[in-house]
Each structure stands twice: as C-alpha cells, then as structure tokens.
Write a structure and sequence with these properties.
The protein has about 160 residues and is of the alpha+beta class. The protein has a domain of about 110 residues: Winged helix-like DNA-binding domain superfamily/Winged helix DNA-binding domain (Arc Repressor Mutant, subunit A). The protein is about 45% helix and about 15% strand. The strands form 2 sheets. Strands 2-4-3 form a 3-stranded antiparallel sheet. The longest helix is centred in the middle third of the chain and has 21 residues. It is globular, with a radius of gyration of 17 Å. The two termini are about 30 Å apart. About 20% of the residues are buried.
C-alpha cells in the first residue's frame, strides 16, 4: 500500500525551495540517516548538510530518530515525517519548491549513465488524466524495494496540465 500523500504546509514549501534540501529529504530514506551518512552519500561538506537538516527539522519535514554510539560519540539519525508530499499551496511557494525539486532531479539525471527520459504531450480529458495519474502512481509505489546492496534508481512521474 502506498504511503499516504500529505500536502506540504506553507513552512514546508518554503523549506523545500532549495535543491539540496530535496536531495537530503529523498536520501534520508525509510530507515533514516545521520548527517555523516548524508554527507558521504551526497558528496558535500558536513556543515552544509547540518544546516539544511536543521531547516528541514524546523519545518517538520525531518525529525530526530534513533541514536547510535560511535567512537565515543553519539550520532543522531533523522527520519522523514511523511513518506510522500504534495507540493501545492501558495502559488509562489509551490512554484519555488517545485523548481528546486526539478533542479535537484535534473542534476541526478544529467549525472546518470544512459538515463531514460521520455516526455510526451497528449490531449486527454480530465477523467483520463486523473486515471493516468492514479495508474502511474500505483505502478511506482507498488514496486517492492530491492535490498540495500542493489543499485538505486530514481523515477519521476508527472501528469500536468499545460
């Protein structure tokens, strides 16, 4: 069963107006992640990640999870507060958050080896478009994730009115 979709609040939309915060939010994954793990996975510096994690926590997009002791210190895991978000609301805030999300995904697609990118414009009735969106959402979210040792793939699905 797919995660419930929550509509992002105004504060969450403002927090998601930066591509790095989208990358962090996606990378935290279902099991959570520490700032050190995120730093390594995203190939950026720890201060940058820590700053953006604080913004995401303040907007209630991430929350502190479990901790673990490492080399005499304690690492804090962060977990997502929602499995999926709908970026809608104030026009400017939603537009900025969507632009940042697409920018972060664009970076990943450009860096990918032989990505499949397909764009098509179709004339559909509103009920057809809604049915297609539901179908695509079901296809993507009913896939069982592979194990941690498997390669990670990104999937972007969108049905939008032109």
């Amino acid at each position: 069963m797919p995660d419930p979709v929550e509509t992002a609040t105004s504060a969450q939309l403002r927090a998601l107006d930066h591509p790095m915060r989208h990358r962090i939010w996606r990378e935290v994954g279902a099991d959570g992640a520490t700032v050190s793990q995120l730093t390594h996975r995203l190939a950026t510096n720890k201060g940058n990640v820590a700053h953006h994690v604080k913004v995401l926590v303040a907007a209630d997009l991430l929350a502190p999870g479990r901790t673990r002791t490492v080399r005499g210190g304690t690492e804090q895991y962060y977990v997502r507060t929602a499995g999926r978000l709908r970026l809608s609301g104030e026009a400017g805030e939603a537009r900025d958050a969507t632009r940042a999300m697409l920018a972060s995904i664009s970076e990943e697609v450009q860096a990918a080896t032989d990505p499949l990118l397909n764009h098509r414009t179709l004339r559909l009735t509103r009920p057809q478009a809604e049915a297609l969106a539901r179908h695509l959402d079901r296809v993507v979210h009913e896939l069982e994730p592979a194990g941690d040792r498997e390669t990670s793939y990104g999937v972007l699905v969108s049905v939008y009115r032109r």
